[in-house]
Amino acid sequence: MRGLALAVLLLLALPGEAASPPAYSKRPDVRAYIKEMVARHGFVEKELVYLFSRVRREDAVLTAIAAPAEKVRTWQEYREMLVNEQRIAGGAAFWKANRAALARAERDFGVPAEYVVAIIGVETQYGRNVGRWRVVDALTTLAFDYPPRADFFRDELTSYLLLARDEGIDVFATRGSYAGAFGIPQFMPGSARRYAVDFDGSGSIDLHRSPSDALGSVANFLHRHGWKSGGEVLLPARVRGDAWRALADGSLEPKRTPAELAHAGVELAGAPLQENAALVELDATDVRVGLQNFFVLTRYNRSALYAAAAFDLAQAVKQRLKDESRPQEEGK
């Protein structure tokens, strides 16, 4: 008996044999959330208890959200990851395959096709990589085990459960990013409920399998966030002296007046600036002026690096299409 007891103690001491955390369904904070969902949204309590008994805590999600690419890579590293031959060629192919839907989205929402294509390219490589995490696991983990943004992810979890109920989606079948974004455009559940559109006229919205629904939804998202039709997005700048540094404070909102920027030593090539802007320092050698439409791009991902990479990819894809069509035009 003594030997058996010692063996049991040794097994308990082995690395990786620590007791598993309690199921989410047994946690008081999750139980309180379930009762709130029942009271506010009419869910059935025992169904939610069963659902959360099957949800897995994903520690890798917590690791990933603590070190997103926008924070751990330099601008040049980040840009090379997103603005490269694979994504440029893929963007040109995606544009050709969905030319009619992109043209209609541009007419309906006022957003040029290249920016819709670029966002989808940055997010999922045109639908090739939509994420591997079960969305319900990612959102629950972040909602209850990531205090810095628990309120935000709890709201997104609520939106996901409502979306799944309203659209007849299998809660456990949908996979997405570590942050809970899903589908070809990587919409968060709240955005899917507010901005997703049935752009292919099928009678339902399918962000996973319908490129038309995906691109129409992206265009609608940008439109609803204040896209200025015909407006510029991001302009290269030359800076002199040091006064400009105080204006490059990390703010993405276009609140600096043209006179303020000029007085601080910010110069633009071409026509003078006619609207307020943000001064964006991507790195020591790349300073740009972001206008209203740049700010709108940052609503998709609140990072200057993200929006700048999307802009650069948009320009590169548009130029690739021009280059590919030129030989055909010259041969006519």
List keywords for this structure.
single chain, 332 residues, alpha+beta, Lysozyme, four-stranded antiparallel sheet, two-stranded antiparallel ribbon, disordered N terminus
Q: Topology, please?
A:
Layout: H1 2-13, H2 28-41, H3 45-54, H4 59-66, H5 69-72, H6 75-82, H7 85-97, H8 99-109, H9 113-124, E1 133-134, H10 135-145, H11 150-167, E2 175-176, H12 189-195, H13 211-224, E3 234-239, H14 258-263, E4 266-268, E5 278-283, E6 286-290, H15 292-300, H16 304-330
Antiparallel strand pairs: 1-2, 3-4, 3-6, 5-6
Helix pairs in contact: 2-3, 6-16, 7-9, 7-16, 8-13, 9-13, 9-16, 10-11, 11-12, 15-16
Main sheet: which strands, in order across? 4-3-6-5
Largest sheet, in brief, is: 4 strands, antiparallel
* Mean pLDDT, all residues: 92
Strand content: 5-15%
Structural class computed from helices and strand pairing: alpha+beta
Shape: globular
The radius of gyration over CA amounts to 24 Å
Q: What is the number of strand segments?
A: 6
Quickly name the level 1 CATH class of the domain at 73-128 and 307-327.
Mainly Alpha
Order of helices and strands: HHHHHHHHHEHHEHHEHEEEHH
How helical, in percent, are the residues?
55-70%
